[in-house]
Amino acid sequence: MTQQEWQAEQFEVHRSHMREVARRMLGSSAEAEDAVQEAWLRLSRSDTAQVQNMRGWLTTVVSRICLDMLRARQARREERLDAWLPQPVVTLVDGADPEAEALLADSVGAALLVVLEALSPTERLAFVLHDMFGVPFEEIAPIVDRSVPATRQLASRARRRVRGVAEPRDRQLAAERRVVEAFLEASRNGDFEALVSVLDPDVVFRGEAGVSGPLVPAEVRGADNVARLVLARGTPMAPYGRSAVVDGRPGAVVVLGDRVAALVAFGIVGGRVLEMHLLVDPERLATLRV
Q1: Rounded to 5 degrees, what angle do the CA atoms 79, 186, 287 make?
Q2: CATH code for 169-285?
């Protein structure tokens, strides 16, 4: 077996591990795939004849790639949940749907992803590698260019931020559903105060309408501003809104007749909506059935 063949074989053996590391770091399946592909390019250009732990070597490589991507994202001031999947996956939640419960329980919690987005790139990397994948601090320190004690401090700071969303998943699911239902009820009733009460003061709304969808802002920040937007644009459709799992996140779907008119995915932290992503692009929604 040539070195190139051995590298290809080892890469495939560890591909799923690298993808999961990258997904936890980046919060995006699409970006995780990009990071894994870049790791392959770096592997193919490297002499790995003396590498004894290929899993560790590849973890280091993909981690450095993710760190660069996180720093670039921070430089662009990009704060978002994962992009919509090419065909969003939607499951209605009626309180007795085991499939919906499984989808949520198996997903990376949206609350955790939102908190991770608030960490610095080095804090996020140290926490993900050590606390989620058990990588020793001695191996993480060279990646973030810090001493081992400083790297421990990075993970410790991140851990304190994350601890607030590390409750048992069944309790988190119930809490998320209550927030979504409270959001929908306030929207249906046109109740501004009730709506503001379920929104984080720093909530961020993002809208995606495509080329032929209704006019919606690309971004709105702040609880009062988002509440006004929801009541002005969303109240007429609110009676048709139902709680759902949207791409593995707590959300809602609006069905008018036999078509899906809107999808909303929420990032919920501390019992309030911190991020809200609305999809009203008719082309994206045309083939969707719930």
Answers
A1: 60
A2: 3.10.450.50
